[in-house]
User: Which sequence fits this backbone?
């Protein structure tokens, strides 16, 4: 009986430490898919931030959408990162000279290169988004909603979004 009491006390103590740590930290910082943890307003603008592909078929393969982002300010903007909310989505930066950087993907699933793209005042860039409807296999049918987040060195973020209904 004494060993059971000691084990119960240890379990209660460990749980108490976790609860204490949770409240000292002020809650968790869990990330929601596509949610930006930055409250700064974006400096870059896009004429279109949401694109719905409608119904797409897995058998037809990848679909692509190009978003135009513009620096409307009088200062250069250094685009630090381009991240996607899922590995099924890739993003590329297309410069005015036609050169391409990327692919940029979801963080935590392998190396994601920094964007390090200077967008001068008044200039724009094309952000090419490629969605692979086959990435999730047969279970990947149905509605999808994916996000692409562009963040500058000051922490300002612009979020682009694609949607589709995937069929076999």
Assistant:
């Amino acid at each position: 009986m004494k060993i059971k009491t000691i084990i119960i006390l240890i379990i209660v103590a460990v749980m108490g430490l976790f609860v204490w740590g949770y409240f000292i930290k002020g809650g968790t910082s869990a990330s929601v898919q596509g949610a930006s943890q930055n409250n700064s307003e974006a400096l870059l603008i896009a004429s279109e931030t949401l694109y719905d592909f409608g119904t797409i078929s897995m058998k037809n393969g990848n679909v692509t959408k190009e978003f135009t982002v513009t620096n409307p300010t009088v200062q250069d903007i250094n685009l630090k990162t381009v991240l996607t909310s899922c590995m099924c989505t890739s993003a590329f930066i297309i410069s005015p000279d036609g050169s391409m950087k990327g692919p940029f993907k979801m963080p935590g699933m392998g190396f994601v290169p920094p964007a390090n793209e200077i967008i001068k005042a008044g200039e724009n860039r094309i952000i090419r988004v490629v969605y692979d409807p086959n990435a999730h296999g047969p279970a990947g049918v149905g509605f999808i909603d994916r996000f692409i987040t562009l963040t500058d060195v000051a922490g300002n973020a612009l979020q682009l979004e694609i949607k589709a209904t995937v069929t076999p």
